[in-house]
Amino acid sequence: MGRMDGAVHLPEPAREPEPVAGCDVCGALDRQRLGAYAVGDRSRATDCNVEIRRHPHRAATGER
Ligand SMILES: [Zn+2]
Q1: Domain for residue 18, yes or no?
Q2: Residue 19 placed within a domain
């Protein structure tokens, strides 16, 4: 609702997994992560990182 008082500092992204190109789930998680960072919710951003990292992908891209 209300935004926080001006002292917003950007957290340093330590190691963030990259969302797999073409994966809707990873893309959505990536956007959630950005949103979480935007509001300073680092725990949620970390959660998104974990989910991106753990998101299973078929080795072969044959699945359409
Ligand atoms: Zn994915």
Answers
A1: no
A2: no
Instruction: Quote the ligand 1 centre to 59 CA distance (angstroms).
Output: 12
Q: Are 36 and 42 in contact (CB under 8 A)?
A: yes
Cα 7 to ligand 1 centre (Å): 34
Q: Which distant-in-sequence residues (6+ apart) come within 8 Å of 40 by Cβ?
A: 4, 8, 11
37 domain residue, yes or no? yes
pTM of the model: 0.67
Instruction: Give the model confidence (pLDDT) of 32-52 as tens digits.
Output: 999 999 999 999 999 999 999
The total of structural domains in the chain comes to: 1
- CA 44–ligand 1 middle distance (angstroms): 17
Residue 28, domain extent: 24-54
